[in-house]
């Protein structure tokens, strides 16, 4: 079984960097950075979502 695809999130404000899956990517886009609350764009989370 292959691991789920991940995206690298880099916050534009606090510069934290974490690997996230598709579900967390969607959450970041909706709610912002989990550390500082800054708005998040597609580019901050590794671009377009992975195709399933």
Describe the structure.
- The chain starts with 6 loop residues before the first strand and ends in a 21-residue tail after the last helix.
- The chain is built from one helix and two strands.
- The longest helix is centred in the middle third of the chain and has 10 residues, at 22-31.
- It is α+β, with helices and mostly antiparallel strands.
- The relative contact order is 0.29.
- Strands 1-2 form a two-stranded antiparallel ribbon.
- It has one domain (7-43).
- 19% of the residues lie in helices and 15% in strands.
- It has one helix spanning 22-31, and strands spanning 7-10, 17-20.
- InterPro entries: DUF7560 (IPR055982).
- This is Small CPxCG-related zinc finger protein.
- It comes from Halorubrum tebenquichense DSM 14210.
């Amino acid at each position: 079984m292959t691991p789920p695809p991940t995206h690298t999130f880099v916050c534009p404000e606090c510069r934290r960097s974490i690997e996230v899956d598709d579900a967390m990517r969607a959450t970041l886009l909706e709610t912002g950075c989990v550390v500082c609350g800054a708005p998040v764009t597609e580019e901050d989370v590794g671009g377009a979502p992975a195709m399933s």
